[in-house]
Write a structure and sequence with these properties.
Structural class: alpha/beta
Largest sheet: 6 strands, mixed
Bound molecules: adenosine-5'-triphosphate
Shape: globular
Distance between the termini: 38 Å
Strand order of the largest sheet: 6-7-8-3-9-10
Helix content: 25-40%
Length: 237
């Protein structure tokens, strides 16, 4: 379980996060929704230690990890898939997947995991020897997700996995997110502008507005909330 308490971050004196607290319990999907610039990516970057925070504590499975560095955060099993498609364009699909497992040395298990990724995303099997940079946007997103899973993370943080994907693929990506959560019990902190999908798959959600948490509740509660409907689901009266 990840517990973030009173986290504040500023960029050059401008406060981007103002003392937010969020919890990601074991085996759950938690989503952070909010408009552009609300501070969603900043939250993930601060948890990953890619940026410095001003105040706050981060507790992971009972251990205070507030002051460890980015590399040690990854070693603890906390993996982030950043916004945009971060694949190595000049390497093949297979090489990208193997690279995801670079911290592991259980060769047989790695081969099995690659097969599992190909079951999740059959198109990647067909294109295993194709250079990643020549894949379509959606295929690159699938590869980015698979590569992150190859590290066998204990917790996954995803920054807008549906960004720029065709509607059909958005459905697919959310189905996969649900599947790895249910099958592997992987806790996921999911950032999305696509609030409708995110709240449907999430056990719990937080609504972030200009650096503060304005609302929180179960996915269903937030889907029914009038303010959420009006501002984030486009279905308000
Ligand atoms: P989006 O959905 O558009 O990606 P977001 O909710 O992820 O938005 P953040 O990227 O966390 O928002 O940005 C929060 C605020 O901090 C914004 O006002 C942004 O302009 C500002 N900000 C983010 N990164 C930096 C930076 N490196 N330097 C200065 N300001 C920054």
């Amino acid at each position: 379980m990840l517990e973030v308490k009173n986290l504040s971050v500023s960029y050059g004196g401008i406060k981007a996060l103002k003392s937010i607290s969020i919890t990601v319990p074991d085996r759950q999907i938690v989503t952070l929704i909010g408009a552009n610039g609300a501070g969603k990516s900043t939250t993930l970057r601060a948890i990953s230690k890619l940026i410095k925070h001003d105040t706050g504590t981060i507790i992971y499975n009972g251990e205070d990890i507030t002051n460890i560095n980015a590399r040690d955060t990854v070693k603890k099993g906390i993996t982030m898939i950043p916004e945009g498609r971060h694949v190595f364009p000049d390497m093949t699909v297979m090489e990208n997947l193997r690279l995801g497992a670079y911290l592991r040395n259980d060769k047989k298990q790695i081969r099995e995991d690659i097969d599992y990724m190909f079951d999740l995303f059959p198109v990647l099997r067909e294109r295993s020897s194709q250079l990643a940079g020549t894949l379509s946007g959606g295929e690159q997103q699938m590869l980015a997700v698979s590569r992150a899973l190859m590290a066998r993370p204990k917790m996954l943080m995803m920054d807008e996995p549906s960004l720029g994907l065709a509607p059909m693929l958005v459905k697919d990506i959310f189905a996969i997110i649900e599947r790895v959560n249910k099958e592997d019990g992987l806790p996921i902190l999911l950032i999305e502008q696509n609030a409708n999908f995110a709240l449907k798959v999430a056990d719990y959600g937080y609504v972030l507005e200009t650096g503060t948490i304005q609302l929180e509740g179960t996915g269903d509660q937030l889907l029914q909330n009038e303010k959420v409907k009006e501002l984030y689901l486009g279905t308000g009266d």
